[in-house]
Amino acid sequence: MTQADFAPRSLLYVPASNARALEKARGLAADMLIIDLEDAVPEDRKEEARAAMRAAVAGGYPGKRVAVRINASGSAHQAADLGAVAGLALDAVVLPKVERQADLDPARGLGVPTLAMIETPAAIYAARDIAADPAVRGLIAGLNDLAHELRLPGGDRGAMSLSIQAIVLAARAGGVWCFDGVYNAIDDAGGFAAEAADGHRLGFDGKTLIHPSQVDPCNRAFAPTEREVAAAEALVAAATGGAQRHEGRMIEDMHVAAARALLARAGRS
Predict the structure, then answer these.
(1) Contact predicate 10/32, CB 8 Å
(2) Per-residue pLDDT at 145
(3) pTM for this one?
(4) What are the backbone angles phi and psi of residue 203, rounded to the nearest 5°?
(5) Using 50, 70 and 90 to split pLDDT, how confident is the model at 1?
(6) What CA–CA distance (Å, rounded) separates 76 from 87?
(7) Is residue 202 classed exposed, middle or buried when 0-12, 13-18 and 19+ CB atoms within 10 A define those classes?
(8) Checking phi first, is residue 63 left (phi over 0); if not, alpha (psi -120 to 50) or beta?
(9) Residues whose CB falls within 8 Å of the CB of residue 80, separated by 6 or more in sequence, listed in order
(10) What is the DSSP letter of 114?
(11) Is there a contact between 166 and 204 (Cβ–Cβ < 8 Å)?
(12) CA-CA-CA-CA torsion for 172, 177, 42, 25, nearest 10 degrees?
């Protein structure tokens, strides 16, 4: 397996209307760039953003996976967005506010995998069906919008624990990736690190980001540590098949498979 076979750890939103951000993104270590035509772009700059997005994608981002976030189904901008991304060499299209499988229909003809954003209570209940759709490669937790829809004071992440776990469960049941939502306080490095670690603990494959300063700590949070790599190597080396005792605990084939997957992710297989 190559690193391209694994889910991206860091997915950075880049406003398509910001020429400096589009250029700066080339030198960042983000695993995936999501060129944004939706929330990051003012209403009066949508057409300009589409043209800039096409030019940026045509120019290429070597070594990075590239996606485009279009506007949601029902938006007055979606048809033009779909026309702008048609024919581009993209790794994914990010579709916001997906609440049912039918919301995926406009993007099906692009021939590009969809990353579906789960941002509303209705989407939480439909997440399993959305993740099972053949067009979907992953789910993205849109926690800002979800907190608003749930009327949570201060956007309390803890109060969304059931919804967050439902997204991870739906993704795993559907065999697709799942990505944690953004962290808004861009000057709070400690808070970001804590939330990224929490997302990793909860089972997310990576995290969506809104600022370049979040890329490196995100990659660290979702990458195996040297201690984890050493433990996985020791477990694989000790395994003889079936259940056995290893370093004070019982292991079986499932644990060996998990250790091999960790080593592959770390490029040590």
Answers:
(1) yes
(2) 95
(3) 0.89
(4) 110, 5
(5) very low
(6) 21
(7) middle
(8) left
(9) 46, 47, 50
(10) E
(11) no
(12) 160
